[in-house]
Amino acid sequence: MIRIIAKDLRINPLRTGLTALSMFIGIIALIAGVLVGTLGRDYLESINARLSGKTPTYSAIVDAASLADPQATAALQQRLASFGPGVASAQYHLNDLAIWALSGDGDDASGIRHITVIVTDAARTGVMPAPIITGTWLTEAAEPATLETVVNENARQYVHDGTITLARTGNPQQVPARVNGVIADGADEPVIYVNAATLQRYWPQAWEPDGLTVLVHLSDGTDGQQTKNALNDLLFDTGIGSVSTWNRTDNADEYEQVIGFLQFGVIITAVLLLSVSAIGMINIGLAGIEQRSRELLIRRALGATRTSIAIQVIGSSVLLSLIIALATVLFSAVLVWAIPWILPVDSPLEPPAYPYTAAMVAVLASVATSLIGSLAPAIKAIRLQPALALR
């Protein structure tokens, strides 16, 4: 029977090719649909994470009692680096820190350029990830040997010979700072990230913070209120202060509905494509039965049972679907493998893993589609009357 089924596929190459193409499109559509849905979800999550933190992220505005004390802030950074409930990053508010525009096109005659300057630490990208375009991110507090910064793409214009010049409003002093790298943070305006530990160590005259915000990305299963209490204990132990405002900032609710709609649309599209594939297989199968009716009638007249005729018709479709499914899975695996080479350097997306579950579902759906698509031709074939072969 296997030989008959395999031979059956070679009788009409055009019919077999059209059926194979229909199956191929259906399987690729399902795998691609799931992959697009996954990439779409990852893209929205990545964009949101760059701007407002990974899910879930909380922002704690600290009622600070002592930020000017170097020992207190050093202890704070050390404790935050090993914060149990999640990844914690401190952001210090230094309103008078600015950039010296060497081109002379500053906001005032002194060349001071008032752009966004964020004084933070190396843990920030663990909360608000940003792809590295060139270079590296800020280093750990104990490692750097000089004042260091990182700039976003829009702030590249202020980098000269690998350094950027920091200044303070109303103060003629200019301090060069090393630029570790350039990141894609999603901001539309120029942003400079300054390593808080190195600023305090190598330019203590500028260390006059008037506020502190701690961003916390919670670990899985961690409760927000318990994390707030843990942070309050940490701030009390270091003598920094206490949490005055505790809010969730990752905006997950705003894009969850969009993601759900996207995935629902992808699933519906894949189902429709598979349905079209099944309808095409039915049409091709019925046409094939019309063409082969005399052959099947002769087999019936020679003693073939209805069951063997049905197995022949259905088996050829199932065998073809398995062959095409294997070829399609290999083809889609090559495409997924090539995606990292297509993504731009500053893409917020991580290279996707191959959707094995989707591929398995696609293969099963292909077999199910071939079964459904071959039922009508099989029923028509077994209803043929052997006596018609004598006409």
From TrEMBL:
Protein name: ABC transporter permease
Membrane topology: Multi-pass membrane protein
Species of provenance: Bifidobacterium amazonense
Pfam family, one: FtsX
Taxonomy, superkingdom: Bacteria
Domain ABC3 transporter permease C-terminal: start-end pairs: 268-386
Record domain MacB-like periplasmic core: where: 16-233
Similarity remark: Belongs to the ABC-4 integral membrane protein family.
Transmembrane domains' residue ranges: 21-40, 261-289, 309-342, 354-376
Compartments (UniProt record): Cell membrane
rRNA processing found in the keyword field: no
Keywords of the record: Cell membrane, Membrane, Transmembrane, Transmembrane helix
Main location: membrane
